[in-house]
């Protein structure tokens, strides 16, 4: 394997993403370059990248000093959704990685492999490969909610409860009577993105998340989404919609499309218009336009109680630690 700098990785990110698309048992969106690069730049700017490319794929890592000594981590280690084992043959890639680390002069003490399917073969392969020489530990389960969009919007609705369907249809009718409109953006040009994201941040500031400083309108979270939306817009993958009342944005929703999958990234709404269920309207509208586009899976991200009503599928991943 040979090592790439962060600059070289960014230059080669389209080639990397093609390999991600052919990698089994990984969250392809969260293992792709927009997610990884944005996370590295926003959350771990001081960590040293260790981006490896070998015969059987890529292993994008970084290293930093941690409680267990020098720790090797995926470029996205905040939520642990990104799997750093990117290649069509994970067993051969693990063999390459182990050989590289054994021969390297890098004095690492802990390796964290995140984003592994707890029931998939890659976890078993990694245990066998690193369990011979290292102590192993298994982290907690990261849960995500996903909804099938097979059958379009009506197919999605048919898989929801009767109460959910009735409530959402009432909200849609009420919105029509209240003069609610929608504004969709895709594709988004480089010159269009900044003013659109300014509108997103204005809504965010007026939301409960913004008021409680839990939103994406400041700090590392803002940096993360600014970096990622720029890369998604560059490839035409970004989808952004606003819910509007009269001449004002009252909600937004945005995410990225990868193949036939959509990864929801953020959704928020002004508290002032909460009686119109703007968050639900934004979510339902995005599902409708994605279905018309041919998207077949909506990944809502980290599992939360409200997402159970919107998504019937669950996807889990775990982290494997190898300690020297």
Written description of the protein model:
With 324 residues, this protein is α+β, with helices and mostly antiparallel strands. It has 12 helices and 13 strands. Strands 1, 2, 3, 4, 5, 6, 7, 8, 9, 10, 11, 12 and 13 form a 13-stranded mixed beta sheet that branches. The radius of gyration is 21 Å and the shape is elongated. The mean pLDDT is 95.
Summarize the structure.
With 324 residues, the protein is of the alpha+beta class. The protein has 2 domains: 2-143 and 317-323; 150-295, 3-Layer(aba) Sandwich (Aminopeptidase).
Count of spatially separate domains: 2
Strand count, sense and barrel status of the largest sheet are: 13 strands, mixed
Structural class: alpha+beta
Count the helices. How many?
A: 12
Number of extended strands: 13
Q: Helicity level, as a percent range?
A: 40-55%
Stretches where pLDDT falls below 50 for ≥5 residues? none
The arrangement of helices and strands along the chain is EHHHEEEHEHEEHHEHHHEEEHEHE
Output mean pLDDT: 95
Distance between the termini: 21 Å
Please compute the radius of gyration using only Cα atoms: 21 Å
Strand residue percentage:
25-35%
What coarse outline follows from CA principal-axis ratios? Answer: elongated
């Amino acid at each position: 394997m040979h090592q790439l700098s962060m600059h070289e990785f960014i230059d080669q990110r389209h080639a990397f993403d093609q390999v991600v698309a052919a990698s089994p048992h990984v969250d392809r969106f969260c293992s792709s370059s927009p997610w990884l690069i944005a996370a590295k730049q926003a959350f771990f700017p001081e960590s040293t990248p260790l981006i490896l490319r070998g015969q059987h794929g890529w292993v994008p890592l970084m290293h930093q000093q941690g409680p267990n000594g020098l720790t090797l981590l995926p470029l996205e280690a905040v939520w642990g959704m990104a799997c750093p084992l990117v290649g069509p043959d994970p067993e051969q890639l693990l063999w390459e990685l182990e050989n590289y680390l054994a021969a390297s002069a890098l004095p690492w003490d802990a390796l964290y492999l995140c984003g592994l399917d707890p029931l998939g073969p890659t976890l078993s392969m990694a245990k066998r490969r690193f369990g011979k020489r290292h102590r192993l530990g298994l982290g907690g389960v990261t849960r995500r909610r996903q909804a099938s969009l097979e059958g379009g919007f009506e197919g999605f609705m048919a898989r929801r409860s009767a109460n959910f369907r009735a409530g959402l249809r009432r909200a849609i009718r009420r919105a029509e009577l209240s003069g609610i409109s929608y504004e969709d953006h895709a594709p988004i040009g480089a010159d269009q993105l900044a003013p659109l994201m300014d509108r997103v941040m204005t809504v965010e500031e007026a939301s409960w998340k913004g008021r409680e400083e839990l939103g994406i309108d400041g700090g590392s979270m803002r940096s993360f989404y600014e970096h990622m939306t720029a890369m998604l817009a560059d490839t035409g993958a970004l989808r952004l919609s606003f819910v509007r009342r009269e001449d004002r944005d009252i909600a937004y929703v945005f995410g990225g499309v990868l193949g036939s999958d959509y990864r929801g990234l953020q959704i928020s709404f002004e508290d002032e218009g909460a009686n119109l269920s703007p968050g639900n309207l934004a979510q339902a509208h995005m599902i409708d336009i994605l279905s018309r586009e041919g998207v077949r899976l909506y990944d809502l991200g980290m599992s939360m109680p409200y997402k159970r009503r919107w998504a019937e599928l669950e996807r889990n991943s775990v982290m494997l630690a190898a300690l020297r």
